[in-house]
Every structure is written in structure tokens, then in C-alpha cells.
Amino acid sequence: MSAFEENMPFDMDSISDGIRKYTIAWQKIDQYYRKFIYYVKKSGRL
Fold first, then answer.
1. CA distance 12 to 1
2. I need a surface site. Which of 2, 9, 36, 37 has the fewest CB within 10 A?
């Protein structure tokens, strides 16, 4: 298990728990991932 996975567990106990975790931390990861994909596609490398 990587240091990232140890510090950012991706398990959920319920839907409401998943929404809470998304708004607290996963949203930022999602935002950076989407920006990365956008710029990679824009550069023509994907």
C-alpha cells in the first residue's frame, strides 16, 4: 500500500459517508485529475 493510500482511504460506510468524504477531500483529487486530462487532451498527447 502506498503512502497516499494510507493517508487517503477510499472506503465508504454509506452513501452519505461517501458524499461527506467527497466534499472534504476527494473533490480536490477529482478536480486535479480532470484538469490534468483536459490539458493532456488539449496538448494532443492523448
1. 18
2. 2
pTM of the model: 0.56
Count the neighbouring beta carbons within 10 Å of the beta carbon of residue 26: 16
Query: CB-hemisphere CA count at 13 Å for 45?
Result: 6
* Site of grid cell 492523448: 46
Q: What residue segments make up the domains of the chain, in order of their start?
A: 14-46
**In whole angstroms, what separates CA 37 from the centre of its chain?**
13
> pLDDT (tens digit, 9 = 90+) per residue, 10-38?
788 999 998 998 888 888 889 999 999 99
